[in-house]
Write a structure and sequence with these properties.
By secondary structure, this protein is mainly alpha-helical. It has one domain (4-119). The chain is 83% helix and 0% strand. The chain has helices at residues 4-19, 24-42, 45-62, 68-86, 92-119. The radius of gyration is 18 Å and the shape is globular. The relative contact order is 0.10.
């Protein structure tokens, strides 16, 4: 199974290498282009942020029994949900990302269960 976290780090590192030779003006244009692409797919950022913060309120109100991995996975999932609600609900990448974050939390639970069995 591929590790989505490592894949993301690899993509970021590769992107940084490609962009190192760009000028400041080119960087600004790339950022504007990226923001426009994100707006087209996810909708207005402010609206997505409001939706995400509303969803994350459930973690703040009811997440006292969650560990750091669970909180972070749920937070990331809620951001993805906010983007799907506010933008393109047919985004395969958004749904795949949700599954990936859920899998990361699941894998930690399974690993912790194995540790508990080994300790007995």
């Amino acid at each position: 199974m591929k590790d989505p976290y490592l894949e993301t780090l690899t993509r970021v590192a590769d992107s940084k290498k490609r962009n190192q030779t760009k000028t400041h003006k080119e960087d600004k244009m790339d950022i504007k282009d990226t923001l426009q692409e994100r707006h087209d797919e996810y909708g207005d950022f402010r609206t997505s942020a409001k939706i995400a913060q509303h969803l994350k309120g459930a973690i703040r109100s009811h997440g006292e029994n969650l560990n750091a991995t669970q909180v972070e996975a749920m937070s990331a999932i809620m951001v993805k949900i906010s983007r799907l609600l506010n933008g393109d609900a047919n985004s395969k990448d958004g749904w795949r990302d949700i599954a990936g974050y859920a899998m990361l939390a699941h894998e930690e639970i399974v690993a912790n269960e194995r540790l508990q069995v080994d300790e007995v």
